[in-house]
């Protein structure tokens, strides 16, 4: 079963192929380097060639051909993932979906789209056709694909209202191609969606997506400043708990994040400023300003009315993992954690973690709805020193009751709840019998007895040169 | 200060006046008779004449004229209120708003409308112009006005998602005319909205309304049947807690409500059937059916696909106070309570009340969002025997921790939280110095030291003949 890469590449040469070394290398990488841990382990990883099918039929041809020649296939949207999700650990074929980007149908409340469509292009099409937009998007809206968001993302801007991407109702239908001798085309709805959503493309290629839509508004984007952390956190929570105030984003930045890392915000805040970033529907602004007056806090920026010499750009590009990006650019030793502060202990837990770790770990919180409750997702900024210390920080969070989705691991399980997703595994058995799809990302497939007592290291990973 | 009704009527005779006895009597009544307590006390109440202004200027003229002649003015939308809200306890002028029903402007997310517009006409205009609809409406959507809803209502179909009418953001702006020597026109937003919303027209006349809109969908209306009460209640709660499933209604009917009182449903249920009524967005149906399969329950009706010989009509016309209406029609001794089952004790409290009172009191629950939490409003059906027993039932609810908004009282305070709303009272002092607007409805105005130890009886109420 040794892969015959050359044979597969040749058999596919009538398709759009890229095998120029520099560009194959760049298309083999994602944002894994946010993690110093992954940076050390994955930096050398590179595929053999890139193929960019134009149709589902061409996807099938790629999968069938690579199956015949035992060549691994790693799917790529835009490669903005953070866990090395899109990196071909064993090399092989990179299936690039940039040519499958059509918005096929738009209806009231839903859209049908190909996976390679950029989130921003999808929104533009829906807005133009009927003033609608997707319920939520990753903060990489401008560069990421909808397919990559579903296969690799978790939620984002909009999750303060609609919950996470994998909550019931946030994906309507997925069309999936399997990697078998004769690839099959399957349509998934309901429970079956969980087989392939957030499966990193390890058990099928998503070729068509049906997503719910919400009305598009001219969201008013804002920054609110506080001298203390707790009232900042409480504003974000309170606005999300006001059922009549429609929001798309509520982010909390512990001081000195705004001052230290947000260049365009810096002139307007102090080092000690804690800040809340918000997107509020224009017709909810009266309600919001009423709440703000009740709760205190200084509105330092609103997108529809301000005198900033240099405006900050979209406020959501300060939130979610863009906070980390901005911090990294200023201070390269920064990395991050993904924390779940579940209701009703969320605020207490956050207080504990701050007391324990600030400023080594700075709180960056995103309001998230979970099972109908407003809670916080933490994308804490961590001043990295050693892997041991990072692991210790993680352990102390877990011991306190704050679940960690470890972004310093490249497997589904370690980046998730450290348990096997049986639905994904069972479907991989069916859909990828040779285990060629994005190899090394599902521990349960490689090593069912893995104990999660240390970081998993994929045995068949390419050797570093 | 004796009212000079004849003088006022004459001075207004160039306006649209109705003083035919039968129709003045009918326009002096609302749905107070749902309450046997109010029926006994208010049945004789009648105004002197009805005037129906066509413009705000005419409203001002009516108020100025009645002020000059000390004539009480009771505003009327459609008279579908339940607390005798629109009944002229002292007689006088009935200000009927049917001629002020224009939809003035529709924008993304908001509408500007005159108060006399029927809820259903407002929705029709918004749907036609831009596929939008109001966030919530009383189940009297087909007959009630938007002004009456704001001045007298509390929430309804849509409150499972958007909360109550008076939550921040659910009313954007109100334009109000005062009853002074020279009536003023005021514009209220933010905190000031609370002065006149749900004030029964006791301190000003609302002449223009700006409301938020939500997208209009072809809501799928459903009935789900259960053999047990608890799983029915749990489905309603669970669907509201699924952040990705968009709903507009989730109602629970304890057995035998569906069988005993819902004629068109009866053939499809047993006496022991507990039922859930739902409105779900079409693009959320996949998520909903997935949840339903997880939780159990039999889908006996869906509006978009059924083989019922006689369809039930809009499902929301089984919910909110329409449940009471349907029960009353079959069993005239039925009346009702309005109960708040607050999170997180809601289910436990409901269980207690059922154990204590069923079937004398049958649970009819509406999912409601309150401060971001899913809880239940109860519009319990009560088999009325005596006023003493009714008071006892109320007392036992309150002792258990279930707040009661007593629908057997005609004052703002007794139908509310039994406390004076200082904002409303203060504004009444300013806007209605002679106390002529809807007299007898605000205890704080008449008798600031009232102790709420028994039912308030307005001293200047018309004598029954
Ligand atoms: C600055 C920054 C901010 C971010 N913010 C967020 C955020 O707010 N929320 C969030 O969830 N993520 C966030 N991310 C992670 C990432 O950007 C998103 O998940 C993004 O949506 C991924 O899309 P992509 O097209 O880049 O996917 P890729 O990185 O190309 O792929 C992601 C995974 O999906 C697989 N895949 C891609 N397409 C398919 C397909 N059609 N079928 C099967 N598998 C497929 C890939 O193999 C890979 O495993 C952020 C990342 C960065 C760098
Ligand atoms: C079967 C049934 C079901 C119901 N369901 C609900 C429900 O789901 N939710 C709910 O909240 N209510 C409900 N109600 C009560 C009532 O129908 C609603 O509140 C309705 O919206 C009132 O509108 P209306 O036009 O009939 O108002 P009216 O009854 O005419 O007036 C209500 C009050 O508002 C005042 N008022 C009216 N217009 C103005 C104005 N422009 N300016 C100042 N004051 C004004 C009146 O003086 C009166 O005090 C129900 C009633 C019935 C009979």
Give the topology:
The structure is a homodimer of 465-residue chains.
Chain A lengths: L4 H7 L5 E2 L2 H6 L9 H7 L6 E3 L4 H13 L4 E4 L16 E4 L6 E5 L2 E4 L5 H12 L1 E3 L11 H7 L6 H4 L10 E5 L7 E4 L4 H4 L8 E11 L4 E7 L2 H13 L5 E7 L3 H5 L12 E7 L4 H11 L2 E5 L18 H10 L3 E3 L1 E4 L4 H12 L3 E2 L1 E7 L2 E6 L2 E3 L3 H14 L2 E3 L6 H4 L6 H10 L11 H4 L19
The structure holds flavin-adenine dinucleotide (2 copies).
Features:
binds flavin-adenine dinucleotide, 465 residues, Vanillyl-alcohol Oxidase, Chain A, domain 3, globular, Uridine Diphospho-n-acetylenolpyruvylglucosamine Reductase, domain 2, 17 helices, homodimer, Uridine Diphospho-n-acetylenolpyruvylglucosamine Reductase, domain 3, 3 domains, alpha+beta
Fold and architecture overview:
Chains A, B: It comes from Pontivivens ytuae. Chains A, B: It holds the Pfam family FAD_binding_4. Chains A, B: This is FAD-binding oxidoreductase. Chains A, B: GO terms for molecular function: D-lactate dehydrogenase (cytochrome) activity; D-lactate dehydrogenase (NAD+) activity; FAD binding. Chains A, B: Residues 42-216 form the FAD-binding PCMH-type domain. Two copies of one chain form a homodimer. Chain A has 465 residues and is an alpha+beta fold. The first copy, chain A, has three domains: 3-98 and 424-446, Uridine Diphospho-n-acetylenolpyruvylglucosamine Reductase, domain 2 (2-Layer Sandwich), CATH 3.30.43; 103-216, Uridine Diphospho-n-acetylenolpyruvylglucosamine Reductase, domain 3, CATH 3.30.465.10; 220-404, Vanillyl-alcohol Oxidase, Chain A, domain 3 (3-Layer(aba) Sandwich). Chain A is built from 17 helices and 21 strands. The first copy, chain A, has an eight-stranded antiparallel beta sheet. In chain A, strands 5, 6, 7, 8, 9 and 10 form a six-stranded antiparallel beta sheet that branches. In chain A, a hairpin with a 2-residue loop joins strand 5 and strand 6 (110-113). In chain A, helix 9 (229-241) runs antiparallel to helix 11 (285-295). The radius of gyration of chain A is 22 Å and the shape is globular. The model of chain A has no long low-confidence stretch (mean pLDDT 97). Bound molecules: flavin-adenine dinucleotide (2 copies). One flavin-adenine dinucleotide is lined by residues 30-31, 74-82, 85-86, 97, 115, 138-140, 144-145, 147-149, 151-156, 200-201, 205-206, 320-322, 325, 438 of chain B.
